[in-house]
Amino acid sequence: MPLVTDSLFADQSPITPSSTAQGCLSKMAAALPANPDEAVIYHLRAGEQRILLNERIGDRFSLAWSGAIACTHCGRATKKSFAQGYCYPCFKRLAQCDTCIMKPETCHYHLGTCREPEWGEKHCFQPHIVYLANSSGLKVGITRKKQMPTRWLDQGAIQALPILEVDTRQQSGLVEMLFKERVADRTNWRTMLKGEVELLDLAAERDRLFTELADGLAQLREAHGADAIRTLHDQPFYFNYPVETFPSKVVSHNFDKNPQVEGVLQGVKGQYLMFDTGVINLRKFTGYEVLVS
Ligand SMILES: [Zn+2]
């Protein structure tokens, strides 16, 4: 198995921005601009280095995978990446890799079977938000309160509106299940990347759904306490992405098939880099050791 030469992952510490980088990929850092009319600010993160992508749009850009992958959690070399960045032992052991993270309504903490009860208490027994977003059309989603707006930016949403706040991740999953009767919970990434998404009136959609799902919401409040599921009266958020040209046909790059990805960088949206030669979902390759230039 190829050894990782640099298994360090970027953390929150300030890092000198650079124009080239070598190291293991982390999820891109996306931040809101000071002026909401401007584009989301993206940094590619490889090892301890960061590259500001907004100023590289229009330039030739390349990523070359060395063949090595490091587990995002333990840093050990792994032949294959599981659940977007973990080695197999971590994938089987960590609570954050359990199926209940993707399906929060199946939380089994109360049965005493949480893989890491302390992690669960810190991450799942925290206020969660149920939101409506527009990434490739109307969708419902959930996130930890602290993860706003990162979650929406990672999905390439052009609009988002928090609609309910609940006490736990499981409750957010139960509310989401109810909304899924009427609204999608997935992003069609091809549509999202083509940039042909129409703006929606999310406040009107929220009001419509609250009316249509009133019985279901009342039942959930009855089961979990009237106070556990709280209605929010927020204003929608709007997001612009640094995209010069949207692809007319979406072809994707994959390091596992071709370790060299290059082209003119035309934009960044969600966790995707858009080249004139195709797109790549960098999140999928978390932990891959790359040389960026
Ligand atoms: Zn690991």
Automatic annotation (TrEMBL):
Superkingdom in the source lineage: Bacteria
InterPro entries: DUF2797 (IPR021246)
A Pfam family hit: DUF2797
Protein's recorded name: DUF2797 domain-containing protein
